Amino acid sequence: MKTTRAPASCPACNRHNDAHSSVGHEHGPGEGDYAVCLYCLHVGIFTHEQGALSIRHPTPEEEADMQRNPNLMAAMSTLKTRRAIDTAKGVPWPFGTKKRPDL
Q1: φ/ψ (deg, to 5) at 92
Q2: Torsion of CA 29, 12, 17, 3, to 10 degrees
Q3: Cys bridge to 55: 9, 22, 35, 69, which one at CB 3.0-4.6 A?
Q4: Which of 8-31 are b and which e, b meaning 16 or more Cβ less than 10 Å from the residue's Cβ?
């Protein structure tokens, strides 16, 4: 897994994400890779616009592909379960972070 520092905002919740980790390979996010927002759990698509990393909403075809991807579906199920457990315990999501006033 490799973590890349690159600012990009979630297109669903507009939260700023400043680090992105890849799973299964040793390069940072590339054009067309999935982008999972750990704040709202929206799955977007990485793109490079004007030389900068950004995240866009998936097309209907990409959404259908996501639904057929067993690895993504398993990861999303795990994240949703973890969020529900943390929320029930009163632990801020994601992963014990505190909501910053600028978010």
Answers
A1: -60, 145
A2: -30
A3: 35
A4: bebbeeeeebeebebeeeeebbee
Q: Give pLDDT tens digits for 3-56.
A: 677 778 899 999 887 776 666 666 677 788 888 888 889 999 999 877 788 899
List C-alpha distances in Å: 45 to 8, 25, 34, 85: 11, 17, 5, 27
Burial of 75 (0-12, 13-18, 19+ CB in 10 A): middle
Decide: 76 and 41 in contact? Cβ < 8 Å. Answer: yes
pTM of the model: 0.78
